[in-house]
Design goal:
single chain; mainly alpha; globular; binds fe (ii) ion
């Protein structure tokens, strides 16, 4: 199926956001002090990779695959929790930063859903958006269980 220029642009914007999420979750997994939090960030990084794969599938399925300069990078190797401490990053700050990133990504998908003309594309974007909301909920619960998020 052919994508409109608008759909293509919105999918590419979201793909950039997914690559940023993957990068940050991997980095924050290496930087977090708490071992459970490291696992949470690693799991979310893998979920964002699935989103990136889905978006790339939409682009290539319509013969519109494009080079993305954010798609390749070197993953952090090893444990950087001491670097995080040296930089003055707390686990609360890492969680809070990702929560605010997820909120941004979710609203970006909301925009893409509203602008997509193709039913199948819209459904796939809606599905991803729902998962982004679940990511935000996961982060929120991690914060709340540590007393870092007051409701
Ligand atoms: Fe995502
Ligand atoms: Fe996400």
């Amino acid at each position: 199926m052919a994508l409109s220029n608008k759909e293509k642009t919105l999918i590419e914007d979201n793909l950039n956001a997914e690559y940023l999420c993957i990068r940050k979750y991997q980095q924050y997994a290496a930087m977090a002090q708490d071992s459970k939090l490291k696992q949470v960030f690693t799991d979310l990084s893998n979920k964002e990779q699935q989103h990136a794969d889905t978006l790339n599938g939409m682009l290539s399925g319509s013969g519109m695959s494009s080079q993305n300069i954010f798609g390749t990078y070197n993953s952090p190797q090893g444990d950087f929790s001491s670097v995080s401490q040296n930089l003055g990053f707390t686990d609360a700050q890492l969680l809070n930063d990702m929560l605010s990133t997820e909120k941004h990504v979710s609203s970006s998908y909301n925009n893409a859903v509203l602008e997509s003309a193709d039913t199948n594309i819209r459904k796939q974007l809606q599905h991803i958006q729902k998962e982004e909301q679940e990511h935000a909920e996961t982060l929120f619960k991690e914060m709340q269980s540590r007393g870092w998020y007051k409701v």
